[in-house]
Write a structure and sequence with these properties.
single chain, alpha+beta, three-stranded antiparallel β-sheet, two-stranded antiparallel sheet, 10 helices
């Protein structure tokens, strides 16, 4: 099934594709063209819709409202006994400097990262779920769902302050409910390693797509290792790395911008004689 609404240059679209893959055990996904393809033995939209009703009762959504509420190492370890580890590692990590929340928690102020996911799911349940999922995966994205906040992941949902008569923080927000829920479900693919969300630094986020079929376990391994692939390995696997900017927005945190593909020059750790700059993903040099 071609997911014709999703393109790799929008972070939330990649996350939606990967979230759909994670929700369908045994499914496979590849990104051989401009849109991903999802292979599944049953109807994709019906199967995803069937997963939604039980999600609000899950411990990863119900135990805390925001990673900032994790009160020290002891509380973190208590949560580890009650919450799936893949979710806790995606929310926060213990570091020498204390607990650090995920870099995908971009919005500041009173924004509650996990509570926002519950609100997205609750809003989706009040609509025609299958219709919203069809919009998310097949398009077109109509941006008719009001009052949503996509955690700053949707590059197409940025508000132009010059086009609004209100302050940006007070301007109405519109989004794509089905896509935002599926993007949320991809979070376990983006754990914190050494205190940082995989692929992320202070200014950019780098994520991979792959032209060969991958299941959830293969995708998880690729995300963890993508920055260590040399150019020949990347070509053999059909791997492409995409980099988007983390755009700051005053006291209210930041958002992710449109992504562009990184062009691999060499897999060597040696400095490139032509003067190329090393990318945010380690081990790959870019023009």
């Amino acid at each position: 099934m071609e997911l014709s609404a999703l393109r790799a240059n929008n972070p939330v679209a990649v996350m939606a594709a990967y979230g759909a893959l994670r929700l369908l055990p045994g499914a496979r996904l590849r990104w051989a063209g401009p849109h991903p393809e999802l292979e599944w033995h049953a109807d994709v939209i019906d199967s995803l819709a069937a997963r939604l009703p039980d999600r609000p009762q899950s411990p990863e959504l119900g135990l805390i409202d925001d990673p900032r509420q994790i009160d020290g190492a002891e509380h973190y370890r208590q949560l580890a006994n009650r919450m799936p580890g893949e979710w806790l590692l995606a929310y926060a990590a213990e570091t020498a400097a204390g607990l650090r929340p995920t870099g995908l928690r971009l919005l500041g102020g009173k924004h509650l990262f996990i509570s926002n996911a519950r609100e997205v799911i609750a809003a989706l349940q009040r609509h025609d779920v299958r219709g919203k999922l069809a919009e998310a995966l097949l398009g077109p994205w109509r941006y008719e769902d009001k009052g949503l906040q996509a955690w700053g992941w949707d590059a197409a949902a940025r508000i132009d302050a010059a086009a609004s008569a209100k302050a940006v923080t007070a301007a109405p927000k519109f989004g794509v409910l089905g896509a935002y829920w599926l993007a949320w479900e991809s979070l376990p693919f983006w754990p914190l390693v050494n205190g940082r969300t995989v692929g992320m630094d202070r200014r950019h986020w780098v994520y991979p797509t792959c032209a060969v079929w991958l299941g959830a376990d293969g995708l998880r391994a690729l995300i963890l290792a993508a920055g260590e692939l040399d150019a020949r390995e990347a070509r053999a696997l059909g791997v492409r790395l995409w980099r988007c900017e983390r755009i700051g927005s005053s006291d209210y945190g930041g958002v992710l911008g449109w992504a562009t593909p990184l062009v691999a020059r060499t897999g060597s750790e040696r400095r490139n004689p032509a003067g190329s700059a090393r990318s945010a993903s380690r081990g790959i040099l870019i023009v």
